[in-house]
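Submission sheet (multi-component)
Chains listed below:
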Amino acid sequence: MKRQTLLSASLAALAGLAVADALPAQASPRAFVSNERDHTMSVVDMESLKVLQTVKTGRRPRGITASPDGKLIYVCASDDNRVEVYDAATLKLVKTLRSGPDPELFVLHPSGNPLYIANEDDNMVTVVNVENNDLIAEIPVGVEPEGMGISPDGKYMVNTSETTNMAHVVDTATNEIIENILVDSRPRIAEFSKDGKQLWVSSEVGGTVAVIDPATWKIVKKISFKIPGVNNDAIQPVGVRITKDGSKAFIALGPANRVAVVNTKTLEVEKYLLVGQRVWQLGFTPDEKFLVSTNGNSNDVSIIDVASEKVTKSVPVGRAPWGVVIVP
Amino acid sequence: MEMPMRLKAGATGAALLAMACLALPAVAQEAAPPLAAPKAAAPIAPGQTFNIGVVRQLPEPPPWVAPLQMPPDDLGIAGAQLGLRDNLTSGRFLKLDYKLTSETVPTEGDPLAAAQKLVEAGNRFILLDVPPDQLLRIADALKDTDTILVNVGATDDRLRQQDCRANVFHIAPSRAMLTDALAQFLISKRWRNWFLMVGRTDNDKLYADAVRHSATKFGAKIVAEKTWDYGPDARATAQSEVPRGTQVGEYDMLIVADELGEFGDILPYNTWLSRPIAGTQGLMPLSWHPTMENWGASQLQSRFFKQSGRLMQPLDFQMWEGVFAIGSAGLKTRSSDPAKVRAQMLSPDYDLPVFKGVAASFRPWDHQLRQPILLTHATNTVTLSPQQGFLHQVTPLDTLGVDKPETLCKFQ
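Outcome: structure written.
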């Protein structure tokens, strides 16, 4: 019985690899979605909106990102305590990187190296050279480090610690903390605007998003949300993405099942888009025509048309989709 | 492969700590072994040092204890220690320091003397896990000492009602909160007809009172009620006695009120009818359980396991919450002045993340921490209450326990 399961599993894996090899090298953009609860990564074709492939990953894949050229996909395999690197074209595991214990989220330096990894269980940010897997530094931060952002010029890395309720600003030249900003409860994500003039930090339990001025590291405004018919407790901001032109920010609101559209000039919420259940993270297509949201409790991703601010489709993926990155 | 990496990691970490001048202040007692050993401790002003004391009086042991439920020696205290570590990790960024001193008092001892000793030693925040009468004695004796008392153990509703005290905050959920949490779930399942089995102790009677009150509040019916009077240890004869004792006609759910754990665990599978069991055993309303893992709870569980080598129990969690509640307020006040901390704990924007999806906060009318309650059996957390659909004009959390319009609490 057991042997048979194993056998069929490996056959399936072989079949998967065969299909992967057969994938056209230059296809339409593809979304890579980490599925936390079934230890896989779904690869979605952004033109047909079909799942091309489901790739088996390490245990509990969460944070997911891509190299600047889009050729490599990095996945935090949280329960295997490592970062896995996949070839975005062949979907093959190229190598694994050290990560420190329980890696949850990470951010790549804009140059593509190094990788800054939040070790949720260890109050630490681990800095790893992605070329040779060398440990560059370990930076002690607050309790349960999670969100990782980096300024577009690569000078500042920002980590949020979920239980300390701070955003820690790290000078990437020295790997030292230069500023600690107290925000509302359970900060999840730190995201810079592309011009580097705003830092957005979402607080899941506090229900707010703090917009911070990196010139002073002071909070300019805390954005809060009100949705008719949705209890305030259910509004839990997590994923944040800002358009390249800096005009709009999209904020995933967790169990409110909405993505908020915020005007980055006025910092007012302009619209709420209904997506799947417990929306977690967001990712743009390279041309920013579409935004993809991972919906952890409905096991799907929602496709949002950025120009019209409408949800156009949902695509079923694996169990508990967590993060998403889209490459050309 | 693993070894050199860890060694290097440790060295780099320590170097960074020193470089960044984030060195931790010296921590005197063995209760707090945080992170790396401090190198050059920057002096921290007394006004930024939080001295937290814990008094735990050991409860009277039950007639027998199931081997799986043997209470560990550091029950509760270990949670306070983890809370202290978490506070230190956060507070170092703002140059805040925290110290923890714990006093364990024997069952026959005097917890007031222990509390007074802690106050004389400069502790201005004291966690109490003591019987309700002792809690009132301590609260009244320390009334004029500018000390914040935090009840982490006693579930008695009267401490939040007619016997409430202005210098006491309550982290432990009240019995009313626990049984309301259970009632909401059973009502949402349409298991409305309850058979109530009550133990022999006064506490069991109080738990039963709370069950009756919750039944009325949410529209369940107690169709039968019995007192457990089969003696202290009925394990050997349960298979013959329990079927006879549970022949009360039709019911949906057997609710058991047995806080000592004398008989509740021998009821399942021995009842006359095939009905599930809830209350102090079976499906239990609790503040915490080792099977809780959503909303980041697994991180707290794993931090606790790493520290103490065992699973985190409700009293551990409540003590962690108590220490963390003070620490969280302290990050905002940046001062250990009890008056400022107290004002922060009661301010409308105080929100305490407690790994249950929504923030906890204190009810101003009775100082009770409002927080979701788990419904769990031995190996799974089934759900958290409040249940969907139980609405409230302010927060659904206030559907659990005594709400403002019903409060009997009058702080002097």
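Remark: The first strand of chain A starts at residue 30 and ends at 35.
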